[in-house]
Structures are given as C-alpha cells and as structure tokens.
Records
---
Amino acid sequence: MSNLYTIPLTTIDGAPQTLQAYAGKVLLVVNVASKCGLTAQYEGLEKLYEEKHAQGLEVLGFPANDFKAQEPGTEDEIKAFCSLTYGVKFPLFSKISVVDEDKHPLYQALTAARPDAVGEGPWRERLTGKGIPVRPVPEVQWNFEKFLISRTGEVVGRFTPDIAAHDPQLLAAIEAELAK
C-alpha cells in the first residue's frame, strides 16, 4: 500500500479522510484557487472528471492560498463558488498550503516523488517574464499544478499549471494509467 494513502486529509465539508478512500483509482491531484488567471480550468477539470470517472479517474481539488492570495475564501465560500460557477462535482478538500514550511504532508510526498513537472521550463520562463519569483525545484510553482497518481498509489506524472485538463500530454498519461 502506498504511504500516500495514509496521509490524513480533511474534506471541504470538514470530514477526516485519506486517499485510501480512492485506492485502486487513478488520481489527478490539483491545487486550486478561485481568484486566479487559471481558475477557468475548473471547467475543464470537471469535464474531464465527468468523462473519465466511470473508467476509474478521480480529480481531487486542494484549495491553496499560497500564490498571491488567490484563494482567500472559507471552505464554504470555496465550495459554493466551485459548485455555482463551474458545476464542480469532483471531490474538494479543505484549504491547505502546498509550499514552504507549512506545506501539507501530501504535497511534501508528491513533490518528493516527482520533483520535476512536464512543461516546467516554459512555465518558469513565463513566471519570470511576469516578474514572479520562481521557486526552487521541487516546489509547486503556481495554482493548478497537477499530479497524476496510479491505481497503486505511485506518483507517475506532474504537469505545470498551464497544462490544462484536455492537453494531449496530460490526457495521454491519464489514458495510459486508466488502461492498466
């Protein structure tokens, strides 16, 4: 059993949970934010979830306020925003930190397992071009970074925030895992 499955989590409704609830599924873990230039990705993530859920995909959203305070709301506000604005039905969790000293243990494990992300070079250049400091590898760089976890709990992929839900690279990786 993967140690990812034992890390304590809290759902957006305040219930204790672990990834063990999703054992045997392919997981796409995404740090999300409601006031980000990439927030519209919720729409694509929900569509991906609806298309692939029956095949064993779970999209899991982890709100984080780490980047320019782009997730300032409470859990109730985040849940309402996601539901009303984007019709999100995929599971959401309580707000966590994905960087620095207070990085959640889940993100400590994810970044340690997969320090580099697909698309990292161009994404880092984009941040630098906007005057945004780039964090050192293996840190998450921004909202909507995606981690792909196999049915056995292995972190098999990591994708930069600008790689959207229906990007061919991400879809190919998801399809490969679903086929196993």
---
Amino acid sequence: MSKETIKGYRILTGYTQQDLANMFGVTKQAISQKERGVSRFSDKEMIVVRNLVREVIPNATIDDIFFSQKVNKSKSNQKKE
C-alpha cells in the first residue's frame, strides 16, 4: 500500500483523520499510523473506507484502495549477486 494512496482517497472524499478516528473509535494518531503503513487497517475498516470512497468513485474496490502498489517487474526478476 502506498502511503499517499490512502491519504489521497481520504482527502478526495472530504474526510479528515479525525473523522475516520471517530468512525473507528480510535485516535487520530492511530489513523495516521494506518495511513503511513505503521499499522494496518482491519478488514472492517477497509470496508468502511471503501464505502466512503464509493461515494465519489462508485466502482472503487478494496484492492484499488489498499493494494494498488505497482511492482517493477524488471527489478524483481533480476538475479542477486
């Protein structure tokens, strides 16, 4: 997950970290840690975030939001020396 992806979707939907913290019953700092990848969103939290994003992007999926990091195949296929 890209740090900026989750934050970008949150901003796009017009929600603040505090808004999400209130929805999930956690602190604003906990949301910050989740957005930065320090801790992970629970499955239930992912569904809530997906539903919020769908208010703006109706066909958004959990994969789009949380697992859209691109892999550079040329680097992953190189042999280590």
---
Amino acid sequence: MVIKDITKDYGHKKGAFNININIKKGQIYGIIGPNGAGKTTLIRMIMGFIKPDSGEVMIDGVNTWDNSKIIMDKVGYVSGEIAIYEKMTGRGYFKFVEQTKNFINKDFFDNLVKFFEVDLDVKIKKLSKGNKQKIAIIAALIHDPEYIILDEPTSGLDPLMQLRFNELLLNLNKKMNKTILICSHIFQEVAAVCNRVCFLKDGMIKEEFDVDKNDLLKIENKFKEIFEFDSNSIFKT
C-alpha cells in the first residue's frame, strides 16, 4: 500500500497535507493522533471515498479512487462511526453484506462469530454499543480480505474484548499474512499490535518509526513530546 503525496485541504488548516506512507505487505501499521488530527480524512482517501486534491493511493498497484469496486474486494474496512441497518438481526445483516461481496469464506465467518460471541438472532438496535461494534468488525472481515483498515476499532469494546481483539489481529497478521492499518487516538491500542507507527498532527505526519515488542513507553514519550502533553500545566499560574 503506497500513499504518495496526498493532500485534501478543507481550508482553515483542516484536512490532510502531503502525506507519504509506504505500508509493506504483511505489516501492521498504526496512525496515531488526537481527534481532529486528520486521521479520518486520510482513511477516507485511502479507501477511495473522497478524492485527494493531489497525490494518489495505490493498493497492489491499483489506484483507490479510480477503482473503488476492486479495492472493496481487497479491503476490509471498519469505520470510526458505526453505520449498520439496526432494524435487521445480525444474521439478516450478514446475509445482506454477503450479497455485496464476490467471495465469502464461510468457515472464516463462522469462526469470527464464535470468537466475538455474537447472538445473530437479536435485532441490532437492541444490542449494546460494544456488540454493534462486533457486528461491524465481522461484516468488514466476512470476505477474508487481504488488507484490513480499522478506524478506532475498539471503540465500545470492553477491556477483555479489546485484549482478545488485539490477539485476533496479531493472529490474522502472523498466520494469514494480513496487512493491517489501524488509526487511533489511543497510543496503547496501537503499541499493542503495530510494528511501525506514525504520528499525525494538524493533518501532517510529524514522525514515523518502527516499534519493537510492544514498546509502549517509547510511543507514550513521543506522544507527549509531539502533542506537548503536560498534565501539570493546569496547575500552573
């Protein structure tokens, strides 16, 4: 996945500016930044949902804006804002999603349902936020995609399920060679699974580096440095 010189300028310093990222096959890459840093704009350009003002995104040599159908077959995407048909049951929703895909890995799907312990016969609108998030994740992975793009993926998941989800991502990466991109404002979430990260601030990449063995302290210190975080500042007069 190659993100080359992409910019989307909404004015007033909002958007994403001159982004360059090269994500290797089989890598778990993390984008860290606070709310308003430009993460969602960047993800939407990567997915081909919005057109960059300049630059391009290529996945397996395919331009994501010009070839959205091909990209959707290759990529499993979880949005930061859940948008699913809540009047359906989980089972009904997954049947609907299946119709939009060229291929469904039934065994993989069944294993995901068991893993997330989802009741497929309950109306989605009656589910908790965490269980709705599980439905969204399963729907994104139902076609066994080569690439997985996650925008704030653990939002709504309880701490135990967050840990299990991290283990799932690591297994998908190690055992099935999935390439995974995680976008989050929670650096602990990224540190748990990623082997390379970048920091996004004001729509621009401020720093990019490799992560070794859950190097949480390194990421935390970089986070504080880049975003000028000082918890004592509120007490200063």
---
Amino acid sequence: MSEAKKNVDRTRQIFEEMSRTGSVQPLLDKLDDDATFKLSLPPGTPLSGEFCGRLAIVDYFDRLDEVLDVQEIHTWNFVGNGDQVIVLGDEQFIVRKTGRSCRSEFAFILDFRDGMIVRVLVIEDLSGVVEAFAPVGARAVARASGS
C-alpha cells in the first residue's frame, strides 16, 4: 500500500473516531511533538495564530471548546498526495459569545512525516467568530460587508 493511501486511511480513521467519540484525542494521538496547527483566522480571536507543539495545540482545543459549541461535523472527501491529505467537510456550531448558529464548509490540510501529523492548516469561513471578538464598531462594518 502506498504511503499516500496509508495517510488517507489514517486520516479517515482519525475523523471517524473523533466523530464517534466527540473527542479530539484521536487527532492529538497522531500529532508529532513539534507539530503546528493553524486556523485561517485573522488576528484578534482566541483561536487566531499558529499553535506550535503538542502543548500549544492542546491549549488551542481548550480555547476552541470555550469559543464554539460544535453541533455536527460531516466529512465527505479525503484526498491524499504523498505526505499530504486534504479533508473536505462541513460543520455546524454555535459561537458561545453571541449565541449565533453557523454552518461552514472546511478544508483540513494535514502534512504527515513517518506516519505522524506534523502540520495542520484549517481553511474555513469563521466570520461568526471574527465578528464575536471584533471591537463593537467593527461588528457593524463586518455585517455590512457580508462577513
């Protein structure tokens, strides 16, 4: 079996287990100690920035639980190319600070080395999170621009 296929299978198992248990532990178990995790968010939210190393990524997921109440996650495609796997899906969540319910499609890009995840980049429309943490005057501008 090719390494790309193994990485796709690993990723599918991680997401299936996370969906089944509601826990991020399956992902954390496959992280390299020096892994990085980044969400496509501008500065200004508790989830913004790049989280480097296992402890920082665990801290990110603790923050995530404080910011969002994830209701549903669906994945529909896993595409592998060598050491990289792309997961396409969507999720529904509530932004705790505002109570706003959001649905958003996402792409997770996972880079593997020796069977372990060394980098995760999540590309997703999280404008509801950005709006919740924007200064009061900027919120009206964000809504007016469709963000």
